[in-house]
Structure formats: structure tokens, C-alpha cells
Amino acid sequence: MKTTLSHRIYTSVTQFPENWEDLAVDNIFLTKEYLEILEKSAPVNMTCHFIGIFNNSELVGIAVSQFLDLNQLDSFGDRDKCIKSSIRKIVFKNFCSHVLLLGNNMLTGQNAWAFSTKIDVKILQNEVLNAMETLKEQYKASGKKVHISSLKDFETEEIETFHPAMKKDYFQFSTQPNMVFTILENWKTEQDYIAALSKKYRDQYKRARKKADGIEKRKLGLQEIIALEEEIYNLYYHVAQNAPFNTFFLAKNHFRVFKEILKDKFLFYGYFIDNKLIGFNTLIKNGTAMDTYFLGYDDSIQKEKMLYLNMLYDMIAYSINKGFKEIVFARTALEIKSSVGAKPIEVYGFIKHESKLIDKCTQTIFNYLEPKTDWQERNPFK
Q: Measured in Å, how far apart are the chain's first and last C-alpha atoms?
């Protein structure tokens, strides 16, 4: 039968074709369950679209797209008080405020699409690009012109399969790497991990654990998350606000909705001193991988108790005990994640400005405005 591709764009998981899950089987972030969370609790400045690619009437590809309206943000993150940061805000507000993204801006890694193996991947990618053009036209008709189109986050071997149009029309960039922790097969308990550390990093582990005396860690259920929603959001917002750059802030009900829908696949750990919540972290079970998600903490206690480092050790211990093969620690805090054993994996994005004049300067502008991170990779193992 002749290949005749078409696309459909959905705004709700209730509209999905029945066999959507067949293509999402290897990635929880493309499943109906997770996409329902985006539908019900996306950041206020984000609109999510879900794309189905069809060969005649057969579903052969699925993809996720997000429209970001940066004009709705009061702040892009306030950590860096400098002229470059101020210029970045002005540029984004005036020339880059409407961003159409293929992928998921709330995650690190290739969560943009999944395809059937029946059809050449380049042909399917081209139809996804056609769907992006459809979305641009829809936004233009509604009075919101897309300024920037972007795709994220792809590893080197994935880029080798890209349709030529992507490499030709988009500027390829790389920012912070994805920090991934590999769990060795012979590690069955946390003690196996500790035994593999060199003396310097075993001492770091012992020091962090000693500092955490007096902190109670608890796995929270839905009702506890709901009861602590205000405190949780304040801790999250403090961390997000102090990031070097943000394009969204989570909705206050985000963690509640996550727990309601994903249930035991979503883990929420609270850290308490005298029954007061002073920090939290979240994890998502994604097949054999454990994905770290958002966290929050009281900064003064974090430093005193080495809370963030203890959270990393807790994530490692849980993942080893439960038989996971890797932990996706994502971006940010690269050096401390490296110090517990995570390794950097370069991921690349693609970007183009819809103004041809500005697009010619994209590389220069991007290199100037993108926050640079200087860090030293560590090797904590013997």
C-alpha cells in the first residue's frame, strides 16, 4: 500500500486514537497518563498539543508540542544579577516571547516523539514538521505569531537519523548536559555503591549523612501532598526563582495532579524537622530508568544539613534497592551530581527564528544570551 502520511493535532487525551499507547510503550512521558497531567496542570504560560501521524488510517507516529508565551512570566529567574541577564529578559520579551517547541520543556531528554518502525524515520519526522507548520498557522490566525521554533533534546546518534530539513533550517545548539547515573549490575544495595566509592567520596557520603541528623524523611501520599500544597509550592518556587533562567513556573496543583494520575509511578518524598517541611524531591518510574523531577528546599537549612546532597544519595539508594538500571538526574547542579557518580551526556536542540533577518544572527545571539556553566567533572569511584 502506498505511504500517504497525514497529521492530526489534539488538545486532550480523550481525543486520542485507541492505539496511542502502542507507540508510547517505551516512554512514560508519551503515555496518555502523563499527557493527561500536562493537559490538567501545565504551567500557566504553556499550551500543550499532541500530534498523531497517520499512514492512511493507521497511527504510525506520536509527538508532543508546547507553546510558551513568555509575556505571561513576571520573571525568567533571578539568580544572576547582571547586565547580560537583563538584556536576555528584554530580548526574550520583545523578540522571542512566543516559542513553539517540539518536545517537553519540563523534562530533559528525547521526549518529543515515538514512531512505528514500518516507515522511514525521516519521512515521519518531516510530517511532524508539517504539523508544526499547521500549529504556527493556527496561532497566527488567533493573533499570536510564533517567534521561535525549537526541538529538544537529542543525543548524537539520534541526530544522525534527522531529516535534512532539520539540519538545514535550524541552528543546532547544546547547553548543559543530561546527567545520568548508571547502576552497575552487581550493586544490589546502597552498601555496594558506598563500597565502590574512593575514600574521598566515602568521607563525603559519611559527612553528608551525619549532617542530616534530625531530619525525618517521609514518602507522602496524595492526601498529605494536598494538605501541604502551599508549603510545597513555596519551597519549589524558591528554588525555581533562584535558577539562572526559567521559561515557566509550575502550577500550584501540579504535584497533586501528578500523584492522582500516576499513583505509585510518582514518588514524593518530604524532609521534615520537628514536623515542619523543609524540603522535598520527586521521582518518576520510567521503565528501567528512574527520572528525577522537581524539588524544593529551605535554602538556609539546605546548606547547613547538606540536604540536596543527601537527597541525591537517597535517590541512588532507592533506585539500587528497587532494581533500576539508571537514574536520569537531568540538568543543573552538574558538579554535585558528578560527585555522586552521574556522567554527562551531551544533548542537542535545534532552533530557528521566524524572522529571516534575526535568524541569520541566531548563533551569535544565542551564544551571547545562553547562560554558560563552568564546572569540573568528578569521578567518585575507585
A: 57
